[in-house]
Design brief:
The structure holds 2 protein chains of 2 kinds.
Chain A: H1 3-15, H2 17-35, H3 43-59, H4 65-87, H5 92-110, H6 116-119, E1 125-126, H7 130-133, E2 146-148, E3 151-153, H8 155-180, H9 182-192, H10 194-199, H11 204-230, E4 232-233, H12 241-253, H13 260-283, H14 290-296, H15 300-318
Helix pairs in contact in A: 1-13, 2-8, 2-11, 2-12, 2-13, 3-4, 3-5, 3-11, 4-11, 8-11, 9-11, 12-13, 12-15, 13-14, 13-15
Chain B: E1 22-27, E2 29-30, E3 34-35, E4 40-44, E5 50-55, E6 61-66, E7 70-76, E8 85-87, E9 94-99, E10 104-106, E11 111-113, H1 120-152, H2 159-176, H3 182-210, H4 215-237, E12 253-255, E13 258-260, H5 262-284, H6 286-296, H7 298-303, H8 308-333, H9 340-355, H10 360-376, H11 388-400
Helix pairs in contact in B: 1-5, 1-6, 1-8, 1-9, 1-10, 2-3, 2-4, 2-8, 2-9, 3-8, 5-6, 5-8, 6-8, 9-10, 9-11, 10-11
The chains are: A mainly alpha, B alpha+beta.
C-alpha cells in the first residue's frame, strides 16, 4: 500500500482539469440553484453544447478554435434562453423534470447515427486544439514535469489548469460582485419567496432568465474546457449523472456561498480519486483473500460513484448546508 | 433497424500498457438482438494499402489489429451482407477511424433491414402492438411513482432503480440462485420488491417526513439513492446486458397483421389483470378508498381519522412491487442491464405527468399514450431516436397543460 501514490493521484485530480470543469459546472449551478432557487437538473446540457459547439466548429466546419469557443458559449446561452422562456413559470419539481428531459433529448440527438456527418454521432468527435496549446508558456518536453513528488503535471496539463483556475477566480469574483449588488438581492428574494418579490414589483421572470443565462453560460464554458482538454467530445460523457456530480460538489462545499462550489469540486475529485486509488492498491494487496481482490478488481470506479450517491444522501440528512453554507438559506419548500 | 458499436469497455487501462495491440473493432447488428455474421471488413491505411481484414463472427463481432495509432479507412464489403440487410440510407460503406496507439477504437456501421418488404399498414399495426406492450410496462412502473407523489409529495428519482432491482433480482432467482422458473422468480420478485418498498418507507422516508425535510432536499436524497442503487447493482450484476433463461426462443404467431410471441401476449395479459386488480382495490376496498383520500388531501384525510402512515406504507409496498415486476417484463422484452430502469424513468415521468401527477388512472392512461407514441414514432424516425418523442412530449405537456390530461387544474404552474 503506497499512500504517496494514493495522495498524489488524489491531489492531481483535486486540482486537475476534471476539477476545473466540475467547479465551473457547479458555479453555474450555484447561480441557478443556490442563489435563485431554480432546481436545474439539466446542467449537463449546457456543458454538452459548450463542448460540441467547440468540437464541431473545428472538426466538421474547419473554423478556428476561437470561433469554436464562441460558438460553444453561444449555443449554451441559446439553450438557456430556449429552455427558460417556456419552463421558468413551472413549479420547481416540474422545472427539474423538464430540464433533465431537455438535456437527454440533446444528448440522444447528438449521439445518434443520423448525426454522424455533423457531430460524429456515437463515434465521438475529435479535433486539433493546437491553437490553444500554441500559447502554452510552459516548456513541454517529454521529460518536463511540474510539481512535487507524485503531485505533478505535464506542461500541457499545467497550461489547461492555469487557464482554468484563472477563469474560476475571475468568474467567482464576478459572481460575488453581482450577487452582493441589488440585483443579487432580488435573486435571493426570488429564491425565498417568488410571490413576495413579484408583489414588490420585480419582474421575476426576467431575473430568473438572467440567472439561467449566466449559470448556463458558465456551464457552457466548463464544456468548452472539457472539449479542449480532451481534444474532442463523446456523447457518453454527458449523461444525466454529470449534473448530479455537479450537485454533489455544490452541496458538499455549500450552496449559496461564493467559494462553496469551488471547494466542493476540489474535495469531490480528491475524495473520489483517493477512494479509487486506495481500492486499486487494496485489490493488489497479497493479504487480501482472492475472492475479495477479484471483486474489487475493476470495480474502483463503480464504488467511487456509489460513494457520491451515498454522500448526497448523507449530506441532505445531516448537513444540507454543506461545509461552508448557511442552513437557513437552503430550506426550499416547493409543495 | 439499427446500428451498432463495439466494446468500448477495454479502453481505460490499455493506454498505459505499451504492449497492448492497437485495434479497430465493432459489432454489426440489426436492432438489438439480431447479429450479422459473415460480413467482410477491410482496413486500409492513409496510402490506401490494405493493412487488415476480418469477417464478423456469429455474434456480429469483428476485430482488426492495425500497425499503430493513426487514421484508417474502414470498409464494409456490401456484397457480403446477408439478404434483407443493407447499409442504412445516407451511410457510405467506407468510414474513417482514428485509432490511438495501444487502444481499441470502436467503429460503427449503420445497417438495417432492407427497406422493401413489409407494407406500411402491417408495420403500423406491429408498432401499435409494441406500443401497447411498452405502454403497459411503463404504466405498471408509473402507478407507484404517481401514488407516492400523490400521498407524500415525493418525486422519487430512484424509482427507476426499483425497476432495475426487480429485473436483476428476478435474473438471480432465474439464473443464479436455484435456477427457478421465471414465473416463480417473478412472483418472488414481487414479494422482495414489496418488502424493499416497505423498508424504504419505514426506514428512510417516514423518518424524513417527520423531520420535515424540504422538498428539494428530498429530491436530492432520491437522486443520491438512484446513483447509489445503480452503482451497487452494477457492482454485483456487471454492466453487460444479460437475459433470462426462460421464454427466450419462441415461435412467432401470425395473428391478423400481427406477428407476436406467446411471451408478449402473456406479458400484456398479466399486466392488464394486475392493473385491473389495482383499480378494483383502489375503488372498492377500504384501504384503496383511504389511499385515494390521502392522495386527494393528506391533511383532510388525516383529520377524518385515516391512518396516513398505514396508507403510505401500502402505497410504497404496492408501488415498489409493481415497479419491480415491470422491470421483469421489460427485461424479458429487451435485455437486463443496470441502466434499464433509469432509461425508463424519464418515460415514467412523462406518462405520470401526461396523466396528471398524483392520479392512479391518469398515470395509466398517460403511460399508454407515451408507450404508444414511442413505438409508433419508429415508423418515421430511426429507432435510436424513439426516446426523444416521449421526452419532447413531456416538455410540451409541462408547457401546455402542466396539470396533465386528467389532473384538476390547481396551483401547479
Amino acid at each position: 500500500m503506497d499512500f504517496d501514490i494514493i495522495f498524489g493521484n488524489a491531489a492531481r485530480a483535486a486540482f486537475g482539469p476534471e476539477a476545473v470543469i466540475l467547479a465551473l459546472a457547479a458555479i453555474g449551478l450555484n447561480v441557478h440553484f443556490g442563489f435563485t432557487g431554480m432546481l436545474n437538473c439539466g446542467q449537463v446540457g449546457f456543458l454538452l453544447l459548450g463542448a460540441y459547439g467547440t468540437s464541431v466548429s473545428v472538426a466538421t466546419f474547419g473554423w478556428s478554435l476561437w470561433a469554436g469557443v464562441l460558438i460553444g458559449l453561444f449555443l449554451s446561452l441559446a439553450l438557456a434562453a430556449a429552455l427558460g422562456f417556456p419552463t421558468l413559470r413551472l413549479n420547481p419539481l416540474l422545472f427539474a423534470i423538464a430540464t433533465i428531459a431537455a438535456a437527454e433529448i440533446i444528448r440522444i440527438l447528438i449521439g445518434s447515427t443520423d448525426a454522424i456527418g455533423l457531430t460524429g454521432g456515437p463515434l465521438s468527435v475529435s479535433f486539433d486544439a493546437g491553437a490553444f496549446y500554441d500559447l502554452n508558456p510552459y516548456p513541454d518536453g517529454p521529460q518536463d514535469r511540474y510539481g512535487i513528488g507524485t503531485f505533478e503535471f505535464t506542461g500541457q496539463q499545467l497550461w489547461v489548469i492555469t487557464v482554468g483556475w484563472a477563469l474560476i477566480a475571475l468568474i467567482s469574483l464576478a459572481i460575488f460582485l453581482l450577487v452582493r449588488s441589488p440585483w443579487g438581492r432580488v435573486l435571493k428574494s426570488i429564491r425565498e419567496d417568488e410571490d413576495a418579490a413579484r408583489s414588490l414589483g420585480k419582474n421575476v421572470f426576467s431575473y430568473k432568465m438572467q440567472a439561467l443565462l449566466i449559470g448556463g453560460g458558465i456551464g457552457g464554458l466548463a464544456g468548452v474546457i472539457d472539449a479542449i482538454k480532451t481534444s474532442g467530445a463523446d456523447p457518453n460523457g454527458f449523461r444525466p449523472q454529470v449534473t448530479f456530480f455537479a450537485y454533489a460538489a455544490l452541496l458538499l462545499g455549500g450552496a449559496a456561498t461564493y467559494l462553496g462550489p469551488v471547494l466542493g469540486a476540489v474535495l469531490f475529485w480528491f475524495l473520489r480519486e483517493w477512494i479509487e486509488s486506495f481500492l486499486r492498491q487494496l485489490a493488489s494487496e497479497s493479504w487480501l483473500p482472492g475472492a475479495a481482490s477479484d471483486f474489487l478488481d475493476g470495480a474502483e470506479g463503480i464504488i467511487s460513484v456509489a460513494m457520491v450517491g451515498l454522500a448526497l444522501v448523507l449530506l441532505m440528512l445531516f448537513r444540507p448546508q454543506g461545509l461552508t453554507g448557511n442552513r437557513t438559506e437552503l430550506h426550499l419548500d416547493a409543495r | 433497424m439499427l446500428v451498432w458499436t463495439g466494446g468500448a469497455t477495454a479502453q481505460t487501462d490499455s493506454e498505459a500498457d505499451g504492449a497492448s495491440p492497437t485495434l479497430l473493432e465493432g459489432t454489426l447488428r440489426v436492432g438489438f438482438d439480431q447479429f450479422v455474421d459473415g460480413v467482410e471488413i477491410t482496413v486500409a491505411d492513409q496510402s490506401g494499402a490494405e493493412v487488415g481484414r476480418a469477417t464478423t463472427d456469429a455474434d456480429g463481432r469483428w476485430q482488426i489489429e492495425v500497425p499503430g495509432g493513426g487514421t484508417y479507412a474502414v470498409t464494409l464489403n456490401e456484397r457480403t451482407l446477408p439478404d434483407g440487410v443493407s447499409l442504412r440510407e445516407g451511410f457510405a460503406p467506407t468510414t474513417e477511424a482514428t485509432a490511438a496507439e495501444g487502444a481499441s477504437r470502436p467503429v460503427v456501421f449503420a445497417v438495417g433491414e432492407a427497406p422493401e418488404g413489409t407494407p406500411f399498414g402491417e408495420r403500423a399495426a406491429q408498432t401499435v402492438f409494441n406500443g401497447l406492450k411498452f405502454g403497459l410496462i411503463i404504466a405498471m412502473c408509473a402507478i407507484g411513482l404517481s401514488l407516492i407523489y400523490g400521498t407524500t409529495g415525493l418525486v422519487n428519482f430512484a424509482h427507476g432503480e426499483l425497476v432495475t432491482f426487480g429485473a436483476v433480482i428476478a435474473w438471480y432467482f432465474n439464473s443464479a440462485w436455484g435456477s427457478l422458473n421465471l414465473v416463480v422468480a417473478a412472483a418472488l420478485t414481487l414479494a422482495v420488491c414489496g418488502m424493499l418498498g416497505a423498508g424504504l418507507e419505514v426506514g428512510l422516508f417516514r423518518p424524513l417526513r417527520r423531520r420535515k425535510l424540504g422538498v428539494f432536499q428530498l429530491v436530492v436524497v432520491t437522486i443520491g439513492l438512484s446513483l447509489l442503487g445503480r452503482q451497487v447493482i452494477q457492482l454485483f450484476f456487471g454492466a453487460e446486458p444479460l437475459s433470462y433463461r426462460d421464454f427466450q426462443v419462441q415461435k412467432r404467431w401470425e395473428v391478423g397483421p400481427w406477428s407476436v410471441t406467446p411471451r408478449e401476449l402473456v406479458t400484456i395479459a398479466v399486466i392488464i389483470v394486475l392493473l385491473l386488480a389495482v383499480g378494483l382495490m383502489l375503488q372498492r376496498t377500504r384501504l384503496g378508498k383511504a389511499a385515494r383520500a390521502v392522495s386527494d388531501n393528506p391533511s383532510l384525510a388525516a383529520a377524518s381519522g385515516i391512518d396516513v402512515n398505514r396508507v403510505v406504507l401500502l402505497v410504497w409496498v404496492m408501488g415498489a412491487a409493481l415497479a419491480g415486476l415491470g422491470g421483469v417484463f421489460q427485461g424479458l422484452d429487451t435485455d437486463i442491464d443496470p441502466f434499464l430502469g433509469f432509461q425508463l424513468l424519464l418515460l415514467i415521468f412523462a406518462g405520470v405527468e401526461l396523466g396528471g401527477l398524483g392520479t392512479a388512472y391518469g398515470a395509466l392512461a398517460g403511460s399508454l399514450i407515451i408507450g404508444m407514441a414511442t413505438e409508433v414514432s419508429t415508423l418515421w424516425i430511426s429507432p435510436e431516436l424513439k426516446f426523444v418523442v416521449p421526452l419532447a412530449a413531456l416538455i410540451l405537456i409541462l408547457l401546455l397543460r402542466p396539470q396533465g390530461l386528467f389532473g384538476i387544474k390547481a396551483r401547479v404552474g
